Amino acid sequence: MTILEDLSLEEKLTILADGAKYDVACTSSGVERKGKQGMTGNTAACGICHSFSADGRCVSLLKILYTNECIYDCKYCVNRKSNDTIRTSFTPEEVCELTMQFYRRNYIEGLFLSSGIRNNPTRTMEEIYIALKMLREEHHFNGYIHVKAIPGADSRVIEMVGYLADRMSTNLELPTAEGLRELAPNKTRQTILTPIRQIQNRIGEGYSGIHRIGMQGGQDLLLKGEDNYTLMERQNNGLMIPPKNRKNFVPAGQSTQMIVGATPENDYQILSVAQALYRQFDLRRVFYSAYIALNDDSDLPAVGTKPPLLREHRLYQADWLMRFYGFEAGELLTEDRPNFNVYLDPKCEWALRHLELFPVEVNQASYAMLLRVPGIGVKSARRIVMARRTAKITFNGLKRIGVVLKRAHYFITCGGKMLYQTKIDEDYITRRILELDHKKNWELVYDITFRQLSLFQDMGMEDVS
Amino acid sequence: MNRVVYLCEDTPDGIFTAIYDAWAARIPDGQLSIRVEDNYMMEFFTDYVYVQTDLDKAVKVARSVSRKIGHEAYDMMYKASLSCEEEKIDVSYHFLKMGFTYGPTVVTMHTNDTVCRLFELSRAVSNEAHLFREFVRFGESEEGILIARIKPKNQVLSLMAHHFADRFPEEHFVILDETHRMGLFHERGKKWYLSPLAVDVLERIWMHSQGEKYEDLWRSFFHTIAIQERTNPKCQRNHCALRYRDYMVEFRK
After folding, report:
1. Is residue A296 part of a domain?
2. Which DSSP helix (H) or strand (E) runs through A114?
3. Which of A36, A248, A274, B231 is the most buried (most CB within 10 A)?
4. Contact B214 A40 (CB under 8 A)
5. Residue A440 to residue A364: CA distance in whole angstroms
6. Which residues of A touch B226 (CB under 8 A)?
7. Do B236 and A52 touch (CB under 8 A)?
8. Confidence (pLDDT) at B42
9. How does pLDDT run across A427-439, given as a tens digit for each residue?
10. Residue A51 to residue B102, Cβ atoms within 8 A
11. Model pLDDT for residues A321-350, shown as the tens digit of each residue
């Protein structure tokens, strides 16, 4: 492992952004905070993207690692100990300078700080704490901060970081404990869930006004780093006292991320885990990250395997259905049918299996039922409910409202009539909808631009011999 | 009887004044049209009325819309008045007439053509304003003044002003709208204001914004953060259309 300290800021930024880019969560949403005299920044509840990188993902936060040194050897990770790459770290001053100067120029909405584990988890968390404290208190930064809670770090350091951050996240990494055991030998399900539970409880207390914090005997809690240097000594005692106003603890809530496609879990398992996280841990978001094969390892897909982008897309669609459309994981998938259809989106698939409920009359159906019609989203369902108070809704009106009729018309009636003569028959409707979606899905799976046709791959000739 | 066309200044004040005057003149529906005076193509068999912008009249219209049809309706009309579409004032005028008949429920009549059109106009304006809140990029002058430049279709500056004034209370900043030759100015600790600018003045202000090291840093961050295996220029264009990229640091070579 080569550790380089005298790199230029640009070289460090490149190395440490490169190490952070596989983390998908880049949202700046969840908290509305006004600007203040004497400070820089505000936050918007809807979140603000500032750019879109060449892969089409939004760039909202300055997403960097504090250090890419790491004592762990998780097989899927580019920063694992056994990879021979250049290692470096930021100083707190550098993190502050980049954040402030980028923020002033409106390049970013805030900071996303993650880190490899240097020395030990607690020590790493302390360094993050120092950087964030400097950013908030010396640079008066009032914008968005998303920070990783590092599994295994002392709960009191995590708590202190929570008062400086807007959102915290702890990556679940793999959907099942077995997968984790296999690929991340230094992590366990337990160490990952502990900080998630801790942060959840703390956020809950902020609202109910009960404060419980064990600061007694605070000396032993800060493990000394290898250089025998603790946060206490660095900051002359007393700085570990939580602020008076404890409502501002991780106001934008928590999120997590799961890697899809590195281990053999099916969609049903992944979705059930996500549902449990939303319900039992009050997570704001669960992110899914299609595994990109970069590390050569016998336990992983071969290097260069295409990331399962369509599968990731289907999981996000299902995630939306659970969060905004009132669906349960068990309605979308079952143990007998544990994976999503490649050709149909989850909502359409569900509707086609429940044709006994359709067609529904737009002028009478409940809001919850409207949400379940393919082609009607949250906004159009709301507008339908509003508009039908004053006038009867026609197909023309639906088009005005923004309903995707070419998809919805198989499932609805207006004033008792369907738009066209349609057989309510699963095979028939499936075929028609597949025609609509074919091109889009194909583009998602295949990189259609600039690719030469290949007789063997494209014409299905491989099986012939 | 000839068709009557009211021509007014392309500002919310001008437009609201024209609505006031047209309303007072009680011209039958089919014969009235209200347009902005720039680039208007004259026609035969048409009487023209040039509207003199009058703040009092504009405020009266704004106030009665807020009171009688509701704040949401006023918000929609205000945003639509910033639109670049020619029909915006006619749509607003019809909406207003409907509003006085139906009251505040008019904004929920999503299936009505006029209401829907006004909604679309105002949505297009808010969307563009939101995108420029995201994509506007400041450069810094030697004195530490932040300077940005945009090329929007609609007059979005007034919708961006509050956001940035709230965000950067301690900064001096300027945003230049080259399409409408307007500038948004904010001085530390003071209220922001808009001011029309001559082309050469606009260019002269813009000259002070210099390329600098943070632009290079940002570019290298931007290029690093993309995952090569997922390259998807179409998706990138969907989210950030080419027309927004003129003054975005990361797309400049």
Report:
1. no
2. strand A110-114
3. A274
4. no
5. 33
6. 21, 53-55, 57
7. yes
8. 82
9. 889 888 888 777 6
10. no
11. 999 999 999 999 999 999 998 888 999 999
Using one digit for the tens of pLDDT, what is the confidence trace for A275-321? 999 999 999 999 999 999 988 888 899 888 889 999 999 999 999 99
A35 lies within 8 A of chain B by CB: yes
Give the domain range for residue A346.
342-445
- Which amino acid, one-letter code, is at B92? S
| Cα–Cα distance, A332 to A319 (Å, whole number) | 10
Determine the 3-state secondary structure of B183 from DSSP.
strand
Q: Give ipTM to 2 decimals.
A: 0.94
DSSP letters, A73-89, are --TT-TT-TTS--EE-B
Q: Which residue has the tokens 């009665």?
A: B64
Q: Are residues A61 and A183 in the same domain?
A: yes
Instruction: Assess if residue A280 is contained within a domain.
Output: no
**Cα–Cα distance, A323 to B179 (Å, whole number):** 41
> A188-208: string of b/e by CB count within 10 Å (b at 16+)?
ebebbbbbbebbbebbebbee
Cis-peptide, bond into residue A359, ω within 30° of zero: yes
Residue of chain A whose Cα is closest to the Cα of B244: A51
Instruction: For residue A306, give how far its alpha carbon lies from the nearest alpha carbon of chain B (Å).
Output: 8
Question: A58 at the B interface (CB within 8 A)?
Answer: yes
Residues of A in contact with B233 (CB under 8 A): 54, 56
User: Token digits for A190?
Assistant: 């337990």
Q: Do A400 and B227 touch (CB under 8 A)?
A: no
CB-nearest partner of B239 from A52, A104, A384:
A52
A347 in the same domain as A251 = no
In a domain, A265, yes or no: no
Q: What is the dihedral of CA A386, A387, A392, A397, to 10 degrees?
A: -140
Q: What single letter denotes the amino acid at residue B25?
A: A
**A257-284 pLDDT, tens digit each:** 999 999 999 999 999 999 999 999 999 9
How many structural domains compose chain A?
Answer: 2
Q: Are B162 and A128 in contact (CB under 8 A)?
A: no
Q: Which residue has the higher pLDDT, B89 or A448?
A: B89
Distance CA(B93)–CA(B115), nearest Å, equals 11
Question: φ and ψ at B176, to 5 degrees?
Answer: -100, 130
Task: State how far the Cα of A48 lies from the Cα of A30, in Å rounded to an integer.
Answer: 11
Query: Do the Cβ atoms of B217 and A13 come within 8 Å?
Result: yes
Contact B108 A53 (CB under 8 A): no
Q: Do A52 and B135 touch (CB under 8 A)?
A: no
Is some CB atom of chain B closer than 8 A to the CB atom of A305? no
In the structure encoding, which two tokens stand for residue A61, read together? 């936060």
Interface A–B counts its CB contacts (< 8 A) at 157
B116 interaction partners in chain A (CB closer than 8 Å): 400-401
Q: Chain A 373-392, CB below 8 Å of chain B: which residues? A: 383-384, 386-387, 389-391
Any domain includes A282: no
B-chain residues near A290 (CB < 8 A): 230
Name every chain A residue with its beta carbon within 8 A of the beta carbon of B173. Answer: none
Answer yes or no: are the C-beta atoms of A28 and A43 closer than 8 Å: yes
Search chain A and give the residue with CA nearest B220.
Answer: A14
Residue A444 confidence (pLDDT): 58
Q: Which residue of A has its CA nearest to B102?
A: A390
